[in-house]
Each structure stands twice: as structure tokens, then as C-alpha cells.
Amino acid sequence: MTNTASPVRAPRPVPYMMDEEQAQLLTRLSEDYADALPGIQARTPQASVAALLHAVIAHQVRRLVQGHRFRKKTTGPGGEAPEDRAEDVAAALALVQVARADLDGLEAALLLTARHPSTRTGRPLLTFRKIAAALGVESDEAARGHYRLKVGTLNASSSGIDGTP
Q: pLDDT tens across 100-153, in order?
């Protein structure tokens, strides 16, 4: 079931995740694209950044496709061509770094969780072989290197030196 109601208010920015300008951009884009993002108020602000970027680019793609020289000239809903919205593109570009930082944090948290001992077996949840497969890297050692880069130094349990792969 899809929620068709517009959000009551834009998500509140989290100050430690983005600066004031980025927070204002996120708020403005949240308001501008509220109809395209019905569930936005339920999301955390940093998670909504990627969804907003998708909404901005979807609008721009429609504009570019409709304006392409090989396409028959058409108009958008209501008989008018989609707006350029240059300010939205600039705002979206400014928010890309927030989305990257959020994804890096999510990746680090997932890697840490993957190597945390299971409550059932006491062994890490995923082996580095499984992590390597999930990340699309070629070896266990590459997965270990990626883990070190994103999470930090391996401890005995997470490194596999305690007998876990």
C-alpha cells in the first residue's frame, strides 16, 4: 500500500551529519519533492538524501529527454515543459557528499556487524570469504584490507586469528 499523502513537514537535519547550508538544502529539496517521496517523513534525514537526489535526477532526465533534438517536442503535465530547476541541481550536487558520508558510515557499521561474534555460535557472523563475495572483491585478504580501511585495526576475533576464517 502506498502512502499518497504529502509529508506534514520536512525531515529535521542532524547537525553532526551535515553543515547548516546542507541542512537548508535538504529541507528545501524535501519540501520541493514531497509529492515524489511519499514516505519521506518516516526516514532519517541522511537516508532521505539519496532518495531526494534520485527525485532531482528523475525530473532532470524527463526534462532532457523531452528536450532532446531527436524527440518530438512534447509538454509536461498541464501542457507545459518541465522546469530546468538549476538551483535544485546545484543543491543536489552539494548534498552528494552527505550521501557519500552516510554510505561510508553504513558500510563501516555493516562490516563491523559482519565480524562481530554471533550470539548463537560465538564466531563472527560472516567470514572474510563471504564479505569478499558481498563486496565483489577477489580475495579474503582484499576483504580484510577493506575492513581495516573502513573500520580500523582488526581485533583477534574479527581478524580471524582466533581460528575463525
A: 888 898 899 989 999 999 899 999 999 999 999 988 899 999 999 999 999 987
Map grid coordinates 551529519 to a residue: 17
Measure the CA–CA gap between 117 and 115, rounded to whole angstroms. 6
Shortest CA distance to 59 belongs to which of 38, 79, 89? Answer: 89
Q: What percent of the chain has pLDDT over 70?
A: 64
Cα–Cα distance measured from residue 126 to residue 134, given in angstroms and rounded to the nearest whole number? 10
Q: How confident is the model at residue 33 (pLDDT cuts 50, 70, 90)?
A: confident
CB 91 within 8 A of CB 25: yes
The closest of 127, 133, 130, 136 to 165, measured between CA atoms, is: 127
- List, in sequence order, the alpha helices (H) in 7-127: 20-32, 45-67, 86-115
Cα–Cα distance between 45 and 98 in angstroms, integer?
10
Q: Which residues, in sequence order, are bridge partners of residue 117?
A: 124
Instruction: Answer whether residue 15 shows pLDDT above 60.
Output: no
For the chain, report the end-to-end CA distance as a whole number of angstroms: 43
Question: d(Cα 163, Cα 165) in Å, to the nearest integer?
Answer: 6
Q: Give Cα 140 distance to the centre of its chain.
A: 26
Q: What are phi and psi of 110, to 5 degrees?
A: -65, -40
